[in-house]
Amino acid sequence: MKIAAVILAAGEGKRMKSPLPKVLHRVCGETMLGAVIAAARRVRPEKIVVVAGKHLERIREAVGTQGISFALQAEPLGTGHAVMAALPDLAGFRGDLLVMNGDTPLVRPETLRSLLQTHRRKKNDLTVLSFMAENPEAYGRVVRDRTGQAAAIVEEKDADAEQKKIAEVNSGVYVFGAAALSLLEAIPVNPLTKEYYLTDLVSLAGQQGLRADACCMGEEAEFMGVNTRQELIRAEGLMRKSIIAGLIAKGVGFIDPGAVYIDQQVSVGADTLVYPNVCLEGSTTIGPGTVIYPNVRIRDSRLGKKVIIRDSTVVEGSEISDAAVVGPFAHIRPGSAVGREARIGNFVELKKTVVGRGSKASHLSYLGDANIGKGVNIGAGTITCNYDGVKKHLTVIEDGVFIGSDSQLVAPVRIGKGAYVGAGSTITKDVPREALAVSRVAQQHISGWAKKRKQKQNRGN
Ligand code: UD1
Ligand code: CA
């Protein structure tokens, strides 16, 4: 049987009080819509249609277009109306339609799979995924008839006192067969909100003698819908716990897992130890046996095996190879690569800089647009002057070079293999291999100067 998926993302999300479309708010680094799309992909639908409203372009940009078509719901006239907007994109499709709200970011692919299986096994025309909610007010209640079959979904606003007591609620995930979909046109406008509710298909299907069912599959932790900032925070907390539990099961160590923030896409190798107040973000991958000390943020970066990232370090868009040591207080900016066993120490900033194997920049340096070879020693306070006010220029430091402390390397410039730069030099010309470059005023001694100064001062008094 074929499957297509429709994801509803055209609501205004007013309750978020934010200019950002609701479904683009992030939960553990991933947009809510992105998370729903990722879950939908895992059931291998032949088509995914995202229904978006006035923010369609922005949404398309944020979630990409691979395997997705976008349908416009020009006005947010309700979830039933939104599904209708997707139908032209599904012309010719015969199969089961999985419909999901774009604001339920915790839903797991395994759950979608078993929902589809249940729908087929029971030969339903319509199956609603329901769950038991601790606080059901935010959801549509599943009203069952005497035989136990789902007869209707009633929203809080429309519910009577008895219905409000029902704890089984609609998750906003559904499977529809063709017969159920043909009833979309018959959805009446809700007199209270003037919207067309997708949930009305449940009672309509019953009236037409179709099989509508609600399949209760778990708890709020997986199905919560995010409508407010509070709910977004809750969803983030729930997802965070499950990400960290997954990593612990794989052998990652945490001193205090409640104080660590790890995005959905991040992978961490076994036996890596993570201290508190660490943020691992974006598409970061971390090898095994690594230690990440407190107050570190790592974004979109690759760390190898047995790396040590010391306290208060930021690593962005860079690669840190096996057994390198970085920090404390280092800033590794995008496009950098720290080689095996290299050391980047305190108050060192790298930008678009490659540091070769075993090289060291241990203190107080800015190294930007630089290619640094193997076994290089960068003295404290070395600066690559990479910017002339208009353009950025490259500094090349070949293998085995020694740069004395407090030197400036004015790019473009090349320091040849095995050369030395004397401390305090300003290097503006290429340095040949094995040479010593010094460019500082020669030291002179004025004998007796201190004594003369004192005498002068005494006379002044
Ligand atoms: C909806 C369900 C409710 C269910 C809950 C689960 C209806 C009428 N109610 O309520 O039964 O328990 O989800 O979380 O469906 N959207 C559109 N176009 C619209 C309106 C909404 O695309 O015109 C999209 C929104 O972007 C959102 C989703 O549909 O992703 C759900 O809309 P929302 O307003 O959040 O519905 P709820 O009130 O949460
Ligand atoms: Ca919602």
Task: Explain what the structure shows.
The chain has 461 residues and is an alpha/beta fold. The chain has two domains: 221 residues, Alpha-Beta Complex (Spore Coat Polysaccharide Biosynthesis Protein SpsA, Chain A), CATH 3.90.550.10; 206 residues, UDP N-Acetylglucosamine Acyltransferase, domain 1. Helix content is 20%, strand content 31%. The protein contains ten helices and 39 strands. It has a 16-stranded parallel β-sheet that branches. The protein has a nine-stranded parallel β-sheet with strand order 14-17-20-23-26-28-30-33-36, with no helix packed on it. It has a seven-stranded mixed β-sheet with strand order 5-4-1-6-10-7-11, sandwiched between helices. The mean pLDDT is 97. The structure holds uridine-diphosphate-N-acetylglucosamine and calcium ion. Calcium ion binds next to loops.
